[in-house]
Amino acid sequence: MDIADFRDKILKQDRRALARAITLVESARADHRAQASELLEALRGAGKQSLRIGLSGTPGVGKSTFIESFGMMLTASGLRVAVLAVDPSSARSGGSILGDKTRMEFLSRDPNAFIRPSPSQTHLGGVARRTREAVALCEAAGFDVVLIETVGVGQSETVVAEMSDLFLLLLAPAGGDELQGVKRGIMEMADIILVNKADGDLKTTAMRTCADYAGALRLLRKRPQDPQGFPKAMTVSAVEKAGLETAWEEMTTLINWRRETGHWDQRRAQQASFWFHEEVKQGLLARLQQGEAKEAIAALETRVATGDVTPSAAADSVLRILNISAR
Amino acid sequence: MDIADFRDKILKQDRRALARAITLVESARADHRAQASELLEALRGAGKQSLRIGLSGTPGVGKSTFIESFGMMLTASGLRVAVLAVDPSSARSGGSILGDKTRMEFLSRDPNAFIRPSPSQTHLGGVARRTREAVALCEAAGFDVVLIETVGVGQSETVVAEMSDLFLLLLAPAGGDELQGVKRGIMEMADIILVNKADGDLKTTAMRTCADYAGALRLLRKRPQDPQGFPKAMTVSAVEKAGLETAWEEMTTLINWRRETGHWDQRRAQQASFWFHEEVKQGLLARLQQGEAKEAIAALETRVATGDVTPSAAADSVLRILNISAR
């Protein structure tokens, strides 16, 4: 493979080369990994900084319809949009390539849009690395906006938030007890909460839901990276394409403020540092899944839970096997 | 040191022996650690399961006054109460032994109460281990309730929640924008939110604050370990000793439900497992703070933040030094 040629094609926004490059970074084969590293190194610093938007929403909130409508609005205004997905469950559901393309019928045929489903990896750490590399490839290919969507399984919101400049939480209208659906801690990450389906019979409910979340957001501590009024909650209707322009204006306001105040660069640098440490940690902790250490942990697990041995004493045994003296 | 004698004294609720034992588990000296391990092993399974109550509250919410009033109420009803603290910042403030004792003037002189300040350790992992061991010693010494308080610096709430059967969040009354003081994610841990200072001029504000938090709690997802109506928010006045009986009744209701449904035992087993894995992880990750790995990380840190090298490539270099092949 000619890396220089590959690099040039991606920089020239060749969609087929981009798709092939993403396949390359998703591969677990050793020779593919080596080529992927070489390609990423060749592309480092080239291209542009896209606006990376993380988007989380549980199934049923209308995430695909939102991405379709929102993406079409962006491409209509001349922006190039890439859509990536982080879904650690997609390996189980047998991949969702066809699903993603048919779910976004118009956007998938838009020459200014590029849609890529989640890599089929069960391990979230693996998905995270591949997705970060795919984002880097999309930036090299000159996309203005990279949307990274997740269904919010386990820790996947954190993974997406840590590779985004802006994090959106998409919610459905709900009344009373149904409101309990938001995972604790996820509001920590949201820059903007969008209550979708503010149309037809659900419009009033959507507005009330939005007011409830706006109230809840006000109870939380102000973050240094937010200008006055953020994080905020808004209503949209993906089906009726209502509220999308306003939502985009709010995103632009937030992002411009962060750029001007230096929070954008700071966040990018922090994210790079986060992933550096994270990969070192994960690589090191992977040792616990191997050989003697794995066996010792499995053997001690039950004894710890039943109180047969203290957690500290059990941990010391494992660390001795790994040839690391106890603290 | 005669461990058997030491053990017997603790089981006989000898307060001086308990205090000496806690000093022993707090020591970093290798011979002390060995003795501490031997003592803890000798006491394992002895004594009783105390009710471990975690309590978090920022400075100014009246935490000491609350512990004093709440603790006195418990001892008056015949219960023996131990108070431990997790405060990673206490090493900086030069320890708070005198502070804790004078802050709780009556409780500290109550023969059925035992107050112990936070160990002077800057490393939260160290504080966590010592506090868990101190809790085990208090259980062996037959305390009915062990209150573990934290000021909520960084991750200390998580540490306290993971060693508690019940987690209380103490808040002060606040109006409008002042409400933003709750750290995102901490509501995840709270079983009961207590809005303190529901007395005098602040009474109305406290009730409104309580209603606001009750509303916010209802927006969060129901947890399997909660009976109907939990987590909940209530008002108390530590100064006027109002609402404390009701709060204790609610705690008893919650805990009895958890005991009957098996969630109590399940949580204890999960916590033991959590600390086992946590200590193995921390012990292994401590390798990154040593020798060549430490130097490599420091050297790569800036290059990663400036985009001079990708996080993945930098991580691979570090893992090669640790003789661990990259994923």
Helix content of chain A: 40-55%
State the major sheet of chain A. 7 strands, parallel
Over all CA atoms, what is the radius of gyration of chain A?
22 Å
- The general outline of chain A is globular
Care to count the β-strands of chain A?
7
Query: What structural class should be given to the helix and strand makeup of chain A?
Result: alpha/beta
CATH topology of the largest domain in chain A: Rossmann fold
The CATH architecture of the largest domain in chain A would be 3-Layer(aba) Sandwich
Q: Which sequence of strands runs across the widest sheet of chain A?
A: 3-2-4-1-5-6-7
Distance between the termini of chain A: 49 Å
Q: What is the H-and-E element order of chain A?
A: HHHEHEHEHEHEEHEHHHH
Please tell me the overall pLDDT of chain A: 86
